[in-house]
Amino acid sequence: MWQYEKKLQYPVRISNPNPALAKLIITQYGGPDGELGASLRYLSQRFAMPYPELKGLLTDIGTEELGHLEMIGAIVYQLTRNLSIKEIKDSGFDAYFVDHTTGIYPQAASGTPFTAAYLQSKGDVITDLHEDLAAEQKARTTYDNILRFCDDPDVKDAIKFLRQREIVHYQRFGEAKQSGWNVEVELLTEPLKIKKSRFKPFAKDGQPRLYKL
Ligand SMILES: [Fe+2]
Question: Does 103 have pLDDT greater than 70?
Fold first, then answer.
């Protein structure tokens, strides 16, 4: 279960509305590398994770990602307050507005709605940890891309905080992969033994064989 604290993990105080920017940042709410996918990925993977320490790590990070989802929702909400119809039209926010007014909806910057196809929960330690490492870097890249379109210091401040947390999560997943659990992981990833192979990598003289493509 969870206990809710009625505050954001990091403050979001945006003075100037900017619907064009909101349209980009919504991707970290419901896009392919967004915070909703991150929280569902870790909070789902943890059930089948055999090691209590890793289960705890996934629970911690998955919970924090929910806090980040909340921050992104607050950013998008604050960027779209008190807009005139002209501002909505001129900024290109009109398509989103027609579908959702200024409600916060989980979608990508492209408008694609959130889908569970953005994440995986494979029930295998090494597979899930690698998925998580890649996911954190993809989220970091998305924040880098958002920062390329963002010159408002109020927004930059919160986005930079979120970007930094992705790096910390990447490091924590990396430590998990490097730690003593690797011994067990090696057993899980032992290559399947192929009884009869048509391909012999070496000729009788010990030289590697070459096969045509
Ligand atoms: Fe993260």
Answer: yes
